[in-house]
Structure formats: C-alpha cells, structure tokens
Amino acid sequence: MRLMVFAPHPDDDLIGCGGMLIKAVRAGWSVRVVYLTNGEAGGTRVRPEELAETRVGEARAAAGSIGVTDLVFLGQPDGTLRQTPDLLVQLINQLRIWRPTTVCAPHRHDAHPDHIATHDVVAQAVASAAGPWFPEAVPQRWQVPTVLAYEVWTPIRHVAYLEDITEVYDDKLQALRMHRSQLSSFSYDDLVGGLATYRGTALGTGRRAEAFEVLRLGGPLITSPGTADR
Ligand SMILES: [Zn+2]
Fold first, then answer.
1. How far, in Å, is the centroid of ligand 1 from the Cα of 132?
2. Strand blocks (E) in 64-192
3. How far is the CA of 127 from the centre of ligand 1 (A)?
4. What mean pLDDT is predicted for residues 102-117?
5. Domain residue spans of the chain
6. Residue 230, pLDDT above cutoff 80
7. Domain 2-216 class in CATH
8. From ligand 1's centre to the CA of 116, what distance in Å?
9. Could you tell me the distance, in angstroms and rounded to a whole number, from the CA of residue 230 to the centre of ligand 1?
C-alpha cells in the first residue's frame, strides 16, 4: 500500500494525519509527503528565504523521526498559493509516477486559503490523473483508490473515518515539536491535544483519534490489520 500526503505547509501533514503516517510506516506501507510550500510566511523574525530553509530542515527532521524520508518540496508561494497549470501538472505527475493507493489532503473548508487551494488542486489532480487529459504530463493514467481529507484549523463537519492514534500519539507530538520555528507562535500540544482528545471520545475513554472525510474509498484503511504489501 502506498500513502501520499499533500501538505500546504511543513507541519500540516503531522497535525492533520501524523498518527496515520506513523501507523502506515509501522504497517509497512510506502509513504511520501508532498509539501506545496516551504512555509516561508510562518514567521516575522527572519527573512522568508531563511525561514523556508529552516522549515524544510525541520520538516525533514520531524518526518525522519517517525520513519518518513520520502519528502517532496514544490516551493509554491506560502500565503498566496493558487492552482496554476504548472502546479496541476506537477501533482498529476506525482500521482501517475508514484501511484499512491491512498491520498490525504486538507478538507475543503479548513480555514486557511492555502489549505483550501491545496484541497482544490489535489482534487483536480486526482480526477485528471485518471483520464486521458494532460498530454504534457507523463502518459500512464492512475486512478487513486482511496482519497481522504484531514482537518487542521477547522473541525470536519461530517466525519466519516476516525483513526485511533492513542498508541502513537506521543510520537506524533514529539515529531511536531521538532518544528521549532513555529513553537513561539502557537502550542502544538494544545492544538493537537485538543483535537485528538475531542475526536478520541467517540472511540472510548482516554482514546485519541484523527478525523477524516472520505472522498473516495477503494482500498483498505490503516487500522485494518494485515494491509501491508511488503
Ligand atoms: Zn498550513
């Protein structure tokens, strides 16, 4: 199985589906994270180019700590992310070449313009990768079997799937804390802890969870036992 996560900024991958990432790695899935921007707008104390470099390094360290080493940085503009023909072709190529069985992206109503733009361009790329369109992209079509949407800044209204992350929660938080440049702006412990506890109550006392919308379901989800193909 192959999980591809699209993140608008370095850290959205861990906030939204870090627990799922950890579980996927442990289940033997291949995992790739594609960052659309380098997060250069996430601070005011240093120059944007410097911050971008810092945040890419933090993303590598944080993802590496949970065993995710296949990272792609597309370097789109942070804060003004837009769907462009070139970006769409880049995403179609990611899908057609790497052939993920599960794709994760922010949900459509997550309250940040870059998150909404990411949702829209990923949805467009998933639809386009499966058809005869875009001859400028690599020609092999790919239909992504399962597409999930995660939450960061706005809770999902109609939750279709809860990933139980109780056992991996500490590792998720530890990885997030490696995004040090962001720690002065807000507390990952509060943000992620609040969401995980809120979502976990549906699974039982003391459980923690990540919530997802299911945009398409054509394959096993992470919690299913025995889903590794290698
Ligand atoms: Zn973000």
1. 32
2. 71-76, 102-106, 146-150, 161-164
3. 23
4. 97
5. 2-216
6. no
7. alpha beta
8. 10
9. 32
